[in-house]
Model the fold of this input.
Amino acid sequence: MTTFDPPGPPPRPAHARGAWVLRGLTAAGLLLSADVHLVLYLEGYRDIVVVGPLFLLNAVSGLVLGVLVLTWRHWLPLLGAVGFGALTLAAFYVSTTVGFFGVRETVGGTQQVLAAVAEWVVVVAGVLALLVERRRSRAARP
Done:
C-alpha cells in the first residue's frame, strides 16, 4: 500500500507564513477601523458637516484596503494601509487635543479605543509585513 499526498500547494516556508499572518493582522485592523467609523457615522457623525463624510470615506477606504491587502500580493496595498492607519491616528489625536474641523473627541469611549488599537495594529503589522516581504524578495534574488 502506498501513501497518497493530497493535491494542493506545497507547504509554505515559515517566513512566507509570517508575511501572511502580518497581512492578515493588517487587514483585520483595517476592517475593524472601517467598522468603527461606519458605526459612528450611522450613529450621528453623518450630520457633522466635514467630519461625517470623512468618516464614511474612512469606512469605505478601510474596507477596500483590507480586501486589497489580502488579495493583491504587492507592496502597494501594505503601504496604503500604513498611510491610512497613520493618518487616521493623527486625525484622532488632533481631534482629542485641539479639535478637528470643530469636533473635539474624547479618548475614552469604547469605539474610540477600538479604532485607536485597530489603527496601531495596521501601522505596526503593515510596516512589519513590508519589511518581511522585502527581506524575502531580496533573499529570493540570485
Notes: The two ends are 41 Å apart (CA to CA). Helices lie at 14-42, 51-71, 75-97, 110-140. The chain has a mean pLDDT of 85.
